[in-house]
Amino acid sequence: MNAKHALLSLPLPQGAVTVRLIRRARQSVGIRIKHGAVELIAPPAVPLAYLHEVLAKKSGWIASHLARHHAEQGERALTQGQVLLGGESYRLHCVAASRHQAQLLGDTLHLAGPMLEQPARLAASVVGYLQQEARQRFAARLAQWQPRAARPLTGWGLSSARTRWGSCTGKGVVRLNWRLVQAPESVLDYVIAHELAHLLHMNHSPAFWAEVGRLYPGWQGARQWLKQHGDSLFRYG
């Protein structure tokens, strides 16, 4: 590297940062962040010891601007993501924040939280939002369906099963896989009808399927959708 350009090291709390020193005819010393890199522009005659002092005094400013740059870069990358909800695809827009927040506005899901640039953190945040939506939407749909059931439910909850979309116990407790919140409502309704039919028949006999048909005529299309697209529904953990 020639005399007009050199590399310095600036210790920061998150680790040492390389600073590109550019010697140029000018009256003062300047610092800039360019494409995520730190550049120090100084007149040729300014000694290195003084430049290190300048960097040390400006270390807080440099650290905050680097963090902002990395957050913006992460946000741009995350914005390209998609989230499926109720059979509709929504854009994902993320910002760095100290607290977790989620809001669906128009065609975009806005997420805020710490360290969402990390894939695991982002996935956990998306799952948290989808599970919250599942609790609300499933409760509303179950309230619509329960009057049609041959027996009343004694309770319900969310499931994270990897291979089952729903289950029903002999005591009348139904569990619905939270991932169904991503599917069209007709598919969710089919799974609900399926489990409500188990309240009467704890098997898959012709009588069971007749009960499914009584509860939800034309269920075959929703079942086919689940067979074709179920594996594509987002899962985590």
TrEMBL record:
InterPro entries: UTP_pyrophosphatase-like (IPR053136), YgjP-like_metallopeptidase (IPR002725). Residues 28-229 form the YgjP-like metallopeptidase domain. Keywords: Hydrolase, Metalloprotease, Protease. CDD domains: M48_yhfN_like. Signal peptide: none annotated. GO terms for molecular function: metallopeptidase activity. This is SprT family zinc-dependent metalloprotease.
